[in-house]
Amino acid sequence: MKHPDMYRGEEVVVLGLAKSGVQVAKVLHDRGAVVTVNDKKERDQSPEASELESLGICVISGGHPDGLIHEGVSLVIKNPGIPYSAPPVQKALELGIEVVTEVEVAYRLCAAPMIGITGSNGKTTTTTWVGQMLEAAGMNPIVAGNIGTPLCEAAQEATEDNWMVVELSSFQLKGTETFRPKIGCLLNIAETHLDYHGSMKDYVDSKAKLFANQVATDTAVLNWDDPFCRELVPYMKAAILPFSMSEELTYGVFVSPSYITGQDDDLKRRIIYRESADQETIIADVDSIGLPGRFNVGNALAACGIAIAAGADPSLLGEVLASFRGVEHRLEYVADKAGATYYNNSKATNSKATIMALTSFQRPVVLIAGGLDRGSDYLELLPVLSGRVKALVALGETKDKLTNVAQLAGLKQIISVDNGESAAAVLEQAVQEASALAEEGDIVLLSPACASWDMFTSYEERGRIFKEAVHNL
User: Fold this and answer.
1) Would you place residue 418 in the very low, low, confident or very high pLDDT band (cuts 50, 70, 90)?
2) What pLDDT digit, counting tens, does each position of 236-263 carry?
3) Residues 6+ apart with CB under 8 A from 142
């Protein structure tokens, strides 16, 4: 696409009235474009519409009219969650009209170098961690995008003295063309969002667009333990900074001694940045990290690699690793009740995220899981259920599938919750059932392994209701 200033007098259609849609509409309107915003929600469900209309921006609610996309439209900017199969998107593609996401527009506006962070799991934690590390190093970060300020808004305010730290989904990256972060990080790849992408190839290709326009002076921070990440190496033009929990690297950020299957978890491990054969820095003891779970060690390694690539002194990072207490809905401590400890991991919308959460605890777990059915059989949960979970409380569209896996795993305490009332009432009952099953010293963990949209508007709503139910026990 052209620079946003170059759309003066041209027709632009924004699909979706979420925060990013509202902000990108304002940006292009301010630059003289003739902007139409369209959302399939009814007008009374779109409170943002009034603000846009007061600025002179046309808002069409309640569906996608036939004449919305036509040959006179120069650009379509879609909400990342809108599928490419949606009629207005299909129409734009048929007419050869550019279709992008807000990320592409923000990149064109932004004077600050960008750090893009993506992956199936751990994005928000790592992004927040990086922001805190760069803040501690006096590097003026702006954390924006899916967390914090809408990206277009932040991009307009950023200067060359800032670093723009951005969490990016595969949905957002798929709709980019020239986007080029100074530092790009791929945390991991798991089988997820296939209902949107249609195949793992499209999902991986979308993630890989993070690196597509990078050059030799840029940096790609890659998970050396993930085979999908390693497969991208031959196509990389950027300098690669790897991180690993299982391999002592000649260059990069790693754990020593490494995490190897069968190795004693009680070994004293350190996070190390090795710049060369004779130059390395011990960043921190793994035990000092403020978040539980081996997977959070991986997030810590990635955050350190990104901060170092941006120019932060490695010796400053250990304190941030120790003081960080995590992000809401991501293995978030909630409360202790009757000797059991409750954690909210509502952001776990796929099996891999739930597996990572379960392996974070050595104590017995009463697991609350279930949600939107995207076609998985959840058999990948079988080994960890049989090894760590004492009881399952299942809910949502996938409750029968999860019950089946729990039975195969040999669990004796399995409860399926569906009282026919509201979604909130079902989750509240699940918390009460889990509480009745939990004994002193147990963990009660909400980690659904599924998206929330069968019952809730978002994983955030699901997590908030869970926390309220716990506090009401």
Assistant:
1) confident
2) 999 999 999 999 999 999 999 988 755 6
3) 112, 148, 149, 154, 157, 158, 162, 163, 164, 165
Helical (H) or strand (E) element with 402: helix 399-408
The model's pLDDT over 261-311, given as tens digits with 9 standing for 90+, comes to 556 666 889 999 999 989 999 999 999 998 888 889 999 999 999 999 999
If asked whether residues 392 and 317 sit together in one domain, one would say: no
| pLDDT of the residue at 192 | 66
* Distance between CA atoms of residues 19 and 146, nearest Å: 10
CA distances from 18 to 52, 123, 348 (A): 12, 20, 22
> Which residues fall in the annotated binding site?
119-125
| Residue 438: both structure tokens together | 């939990």
In a shared domain, residues 190 and 228: yes
CA Rg, the chain, in Å?
A: 23
Binding-site positions for ATP: 119-125
Buried b or exposed e, range 197-225, using 16+ CB within 10 angstroms: beeeebbbebbbbbbbbbeeebbbbbbbb
CA–CA separation, 330 vs 124, rounded Å? 9
Specify the amino acid at residue 10.
E
Domain interval for residue 26: 4-100
275 in the same domain as 128: yes
What is the pTM assigned to this prediction? 0.80
What distance in Å separates the CA atoms of residue 450 and residue 367, rounded to the nearest whole number? Answer: 13
Kindly report the CATH number assigned to the domain that includes residue 14.
3.40.50.720
Contact 332, 344 (CB under 8 A): yes
